[in-house]
Design goal:
The chain is 28% helix and 30% strand. It is α+β, with helices and mostly antiparallel strands and 90 residues long.
Length: 90
């Protein structure tokens, strides 16, 4: 009786492992692409409307990092926020 129970348990464990491997093999795997090296622009580019824009300072992968700017007297000036995140506890 115990030998038969051991064989059934072993077959059951192997079938569970095989089902898990099959499920893992069917899942979509993200592509492993090398990051595209980006060189910074010689002068900071400003993506803008008429009076408001975003100055691209650097790239992190495909994501631009930069500063929000506004045009004052024909010159792009960085914006300082009047509100921001504050810690609730000290």
């Amino acid at each position: 009786m115990t030998r038969k129970l051991t064989i059934v348990a072993a077959v059951w464990i192997v079938s569970i492992l095989l089902a898990g491997l099959l499920g893992y093999a069917q899942a979509a795997q993200p592509p492993q692409l090398a990051p595209v090296p980006r060189t910074p622009a010689p002068s900071p580019a400003v993506l803008s409307g008429n009076d408001i824009g975003f100055r691209v300072d650097q790239w992190q992968g495909n994501q631009p990092l930069g500063t929000l700017v506004i045009k004052v007297n024909g010159e792009w000036v960085p914006v300082k926020e009047s509100m921001g995140l504050h810690r609730l506890t000290q």
